[in-house]
Every structure is written in structure tokens, then in C-alpha cells.
């Protein structure tokens, strides 16, 4: 039944009847939420079964470890169609008293688990959630679907972008193949470079003319004048 409903939704989308598809999808979402509620009830029933010894205590005070399960079943069982849950609820109410049960029905102090309360909310599903359901359904049946609420799921645009990327990649590959590779330098250019480096090194190693010139020797006249000056200085002393 659910599979047929999903196939019908994909067919409606393919025909462009999006509003009808959304209404049908809201019904599927409500069914899914109800199934999740039943799964929670099963979990809490198993909890009570595993901790039955705490239920069998001769007291009307519920143990704190089983309190969430008690509150969930007493509060949510009337919203299900399972007769077994209804019977269990009556047994729990008889065990712990009508006043205790009334407080749970009123969700006094928020005693009912929040995840159970969320499943019991009566409201239209969010538009984004509805479109996300439709997208997943259409994806399963290869039907393109895009939504302003889900810009990341625009199938057609994604396909076009992918095709463009592939085309750009092929073009880049072709350009790379057609481009000539750089060849080695010519022998003439290499020889010229070596010669220039050799000339530079020779110029650096060549000593300057000033450094290599020997020191000039004094002439005889200059030596005689120097001695005469020294004798004159001695006579003055």
C-alpha cells in the first residue's frame, strides 16, 4: 500500500501535479509519524516487562526508573488502535490510581517524554519536510524534482553543472595535448653562457695594477738630504 502511494506521488510529479503530490505526501508523513509512535510504545512496554518486579511492589508510588514508560503508555495509548495497549493502560491506572493517571493525561510537570509528545502533535508537516519526502520518492523512481525549499536538490541543475564540468575537463585535456613542449636550449646559447661565466671569473681573479706595482725605491739625493736633516737636528740639541 505504501509502495503504491509512493509510486502514485512520483507519477503526479512527473505530470506536473505538484500540489496533489504534496497533499498525498503529507498523508505518508502522518503515517510514518504514527508508526514511530507505535515503536515507542513497544519500547516502553518492553521496559515495563523487563522491570515487572518494580510494578509488582505493594505501593501506589511508581518507581522513578519506570515512570517514563508509565507516563508514555497512559498518555499515548488512547491515540493508538492497539487493544493490547488499551488493556495495559487500564491495568496501570488501576494499579496507581485515577488521580495519578489524570496528572499524566494533563502532562503535569512535563512528565510525559518529549519524544512521545512530539509524535502526538496535530499539525501540518513543514513544507521543507514534505518536499524532502517528495525528492526521495522521485529519486527512487528516477523522476526529476526541484523545489525552492530544497535548493540543494535541484536535479536538473546538478546534471547540467556536471555535464559542463566534464566538457571543461575534456577541453583542458585537449589543450594540454596540443601544446608543444619546451625544447632544450641550443648549443650556441649554452656555449655563450659558459664563455661569459669564464670571463667574469677571470676578471675577479686578476689583481689590480695598483696592488701589483712594486714600491718605488728612494734616490741617493733623497737619502743624503734625509741624513743631513738628522745631523742638523743633532747639532741643535
UniProtKB/TrEMBL annotation:
Q: Which GO terms describe its biological process?
A: protein transport
Compositional bias (Acidic residues) spans?
A: 155-167
Residue segments, region Disordered: 148-237
What ranges does the record list as Basic and acidic residues composition bias? 168-205
Q: Give the family per the record.
A: Belongs to the IST1 family.
Would you tell me the protein name for this molecule?
A: Uncharacterized protein
To which species is this protein native? Pseudozyma hubeiensis (strain SY62) (Yeast)
Amino acid at each position: 500500500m505504501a509502495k503504491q502511494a509512493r509510486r502514485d506521488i512520483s507519477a503526479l510529479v512527473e505530470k506536473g501535479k505538484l500540489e496533489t503530490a504534496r497533499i498525498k505526501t503529507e498523508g505518508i508523513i502522518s503515517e510514518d509519524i504514527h508508526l514511530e509512535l507505535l515503536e515507542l510504545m513497544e519500547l516502553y512496554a518492553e521496559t515495563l516487562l523487563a522491570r515487572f518486579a518494580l510494578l509488582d511492589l505493594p505501593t501506589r508510588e511508581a518507581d522513578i526508573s519506570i515512570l517514563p514508560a508509565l507516563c508514555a503508555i497512559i498518555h499515548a495509548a488512547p491515540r493508538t488502535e492497539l487493544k493490547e495497549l488499551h488493556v495495559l493502560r487500564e491495568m496501570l491506572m488501576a494499579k496507581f490510581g485515577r488521580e495519578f493517571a489524570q496528572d499524566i493525561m494533563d502532562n503535569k510537570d512535563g512528565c510525559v517524554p518529549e519524544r512521545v509528545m512530539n509524535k502526538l502533535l496535530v499539525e501540518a508537516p513543514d513544507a521543507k519536510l514534505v518536499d524532502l519526502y517528495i525528492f526521495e520518492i522521485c529519486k527512487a523512481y528516477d523522476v526529476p524534482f526541484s523545489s525552492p525549499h530544497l535548493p540543494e536538490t535541484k536535479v536538473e541543475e546538478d546534471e547540467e553543472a556536471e555535464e559542463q564540468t566534464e566538457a571543461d575537463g575534456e577541453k583542458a585535456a585537449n589543450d594540454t595535448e596540443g601544446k608543444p613542449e619546451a625544447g632544450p636550449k641550443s648549443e650556441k646559447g649554452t656555449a655563450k653562457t659558459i664563455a661569459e661565466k669564464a670571463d667574469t671569473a677571470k676578471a675577479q681573479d686578476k689583481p689590480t695594477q695598483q696592488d701589483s706595482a712594486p714600491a718605488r725605491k728612494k734616490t741617493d739625493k733623497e737619502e743624503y738630504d734625509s741624513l743631513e736633516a738628522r745631523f742638523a737636528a743633532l747639532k741643535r740639541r
